[in-house]
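Issue 218. Parser rejects a valid record. Input:
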Amino acid sequence: MLRGSGCLPRASLAPAAVLAAALLASLSRCSLLEPQDLVVSPLSQYFGTKTRYEDANPGLLPDPEAPRRDPELPENCTPVQLVALIRHGTRYPTSKQIRKLRQLHGLLQARGPGEHRTDAAGGRDLGAALADRPLWYADWMDGQLVEKGRQDMRQLALRLSSLFPGLFSRENCSRLQLVTSSKHRCVESGDAFLKGLWQHYHPGSPAPDVADMECGPPRINDKLMRFFDHCEKFTTEVESNNTALYHVEAFKTGPEMQKVLKKVAAILQVPVNNLNADLIQVAFFTCSFDLAIKGVKSPWCDVFDTDDAKVLEYLNDLKQYWKRGYGYAINSRSSCTLFQDIFQHLDKAVEQKKRSQPVSSPVILQFGHAETLLPLLSLMGYFKDKEPLTAYNYKEQMHRKFRSGHIVPYASNLLFVLYHCKNAKTSKDEFRVQMLLNEKVLPLAYSQETVSLYDDLKNHYKDILQSCHASEECKLPKMNTTSDEL
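Output the parser choked on:
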């Protein structure tokens, strides 16, 4: 096998076979990519973590394969390393969400024939239409990556490889580092990204299996990409604590949510006592799944207006805030290992460049979850509002920074780009870092500058880099089991 020649397959194909396979691949791309044309809905920007990437990043709509060009760095600065943290692409609903949808569908089907079957205008009512609409979701789907999710990843690979051609060169392919969570949707996202790179290197040629590519497959590391599962303090005090999401549960029974509940009950013509906030939310998310997965605006979207959507978005954001964001310190502190890992890669690249050595890992790709990105961004001080999100300040938080759909939609990505600048006046000026969130420059949380000297960035986060140890942060405090004896 040739080294340094790009993501080459381990076995070559006969020219005729290549031509036939390319034709089949071209035909399949025409028929399988979904949707062909993006269907939009006024609700699209309110789906929280179920938001499509293109709804959070509409600049990509004219050409989803064209890279976005952001502010240029000073002259003589060349990117030498990219560390990317990437959320998986569009997925199916989880089995838990599917069960709730079946429950709601059953309530609609249980309406007796004697009940009202027309709306106020005398037409067929929406509840009846949804009752008769087949549910195409099945238990096996359970959060699996969909074809649209693979497309998300392939297109992201094409954009990044065009934006950073030197880093994603064919010669660097064998030096790519790929890490993923063990969840199938993340593993498949990594595979799809590699196939997007293949498409960049070999336009029109069908990609081989990832196992046959020189730069694959991804390596599973849950301690890094699912750090929250390995943090005892988080799992005990937040994940398994019935009171940790107090504000989420309180908002479900609060006036804003109750108004939506009564409104939806009237629209669907079911007793309001048969509904609850969880069922309303799954109906809302079904609109998002139909849009994202099948590219259709289903009748589920007609149940809600934008006022309802804002309330349901806040409900979702409350959960993310208290479980993954600023609600509890352990949410973000549990990600310190991941943060330190990123800077270990950057440190190594800096040292290698200082010694005039080639950077051993020009590109590090890490595929995880919204739950991977949100704690890390919170740890770094991003999207923090002056007041915490609570069940009681919905109106005051209408213009909040913490909107999960804008931060971690499907395929969201946080990039750390290390630059080496020639002719720098001092050694400190030689290395700079720029961060991008969803392919847009992310100003530094502490200065709002678009680029930082590497040493300054490390100095700002020195507490996390030096003092945040997961073994200590995630350790549960010892219970005092001693008692005074009489």
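Fixed in the parser; the record now loads. Strands lie at 77-87, 177-180, 219-220, 363-368, 413-421, 431-437, 440-441, 452-453.
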